[in-house]
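thread: overnight batch results

M.L. [08:02]
morning all. the overnight job finished for the chain we discussed friday. pasting input first so we're all looking at the same thing
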Amino acid sequence: MPDIAIATEKLTRRFGALTAVDGIDFQVESGQFFGFLGPNGAGKSTTIKMLTGLLAPSSGRMSLLGLDFSQHPIEVKRQIGVVPEGMGLFERLNAPEYLEFVGRMYGLDKATTRKRSDELLEFMQLADRSKTMIADYSHGMQKKLALAAAVIHGPRILFLDEPFEGVDALAAGALKELLARMTERGVTIFLTSHVLEIVERLCSHVAIIKKGQLVAQGSMEQLRAGVPSVEGRTLTLEDIFLSVVGQGADRSQLEELSWLT
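M.L. [08:03]
and the structure it wrote out:
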């Protein structure tokens, strides 16, 4: 049996009368690059916040690296890295100061933290801006620094919430290269993104959530097998996604916008 890095059972989160995540069950094997997709408001970020300890589930269970999160929260958090959508960087620090803070918080000694910080800043092409305050970084530079902070302690699971949003092609290339190296070393990556081409290129397995419920999950081959295909054409992840979650506004709705036609 494969090692399971992430497992959920009936995982649910409610906000008053709204059920944002509704009893979802899935498993992610160790070393997988796992894509978690859904329309806006489907429950993606809420799920990541529960899996990383930022939100408590209303009900259900989740285990990471074989540990029940509710019973071993600190031990789990020491072994995961997170790049949240909002990043939450300390913008009045410069990059080396911020990475030193993060490394020390994870229990790394000062020498190890400094060595890894230097290597990460060089790899992310931020070394020449090391004395600049984070507040003065571009969005793409902040994304790269957030990823550096998420991996400085050598996590076994990495959670990425929209890591490529607002990132230029050069920065995106550096991020993809780092992620590829990590999966080669057996790190499990849990990715959410609206850029379906990137998910299709990077991820071996995908789950799709709609209105808080899982509506599809499996390898790309399994997902393609579950969706009617056009003869002679291989279905893309976008084809599968639109088929599963719906096409959005149909033609009758668009025709109502008479001022555009």
